[in-house]
Specification:
The chain has 165 residues and is mainly alpha-helical. The chain has a single domain, classed as Four Helix Bundle (Hemerythrin (Met), subunit A), CATH 1.20.120. The chain has a two-stranded antiparallel ribbon. The two termini are 12 Å apart.
């Protein structure tokens, strides 16, 4: 597997761990604004899903029209958000596997919600961006969970790789 295929599978594994921890919160704690960029665990998890849908939609050529802002709540119900996350994680693996090594240098033209104009980037740069984005915001969720008294297990790539062989 190339590094992006490993990261796609790591993404699925780490999201399972993070959502498992988030499920331990009361609804009040899950939605509490704790001062993170998107406020709550719920809003931050929604934002990560938005980022994934946008970036992987750009790569696959099917950006979802229902996304209007980066702070949009796609799923208010935690169970629906978890199901959407799981489906997205499967899609990420499929898209990355479909690219293979040869598709990583394909240039993709896209638009951003936050800036006007066309942008062109190779798929590999877009993947670097989205996997970094996930890690950044999952770190925020980790902090929010810790503030709420939840013990979060290790979320490191090396821990994943030990278990995955």
């Amino acid at each position: 597997m190339n590094d992006f295929q490993v990261l796609a599978r790591f993404n699925q594994w780490v999201n399972g761990r993070l959502y498992g921890c988030a499920a331990q919160l009361s609804d009040e704690d899950y939605r509490a604004d704790r001062g993170a960029f998107f406020g709550s665990v719920h809003a931050t998890l929604n934002h990560i899903l938005i980022g994934d849908r946008l970036w992987f939609g750009r790569i696959a050529g099917d950006v979802p029209a229902e996304i209007k802002s980066l702070d949009q709540i796609l799923h208010d119900d935690p169970a629906a958000l978890k199901a959407a996350r799981e489906a997205m994680d499967e899609r990420i693996i499929d898209i990355v596997d479909g690219l293979g090594d040869s598709g990583l240098d394909e240039e993709i033209t896209f638009h951003q919600l936050s800036r006007p104009g066309d942008f062109i980037q190779p798929a590999r740069r877009m993947l670097q961006t989205v996997f970094n984005h996930q890690t950044h915001h999952r770190g925020q969720v980790h902090c929010l969970l810790t503030q709420a008294g939840i013990e979060v297990p290790p979320l490191d790539v090396m821990i994943y790789l030990r278990g995955a062989g």
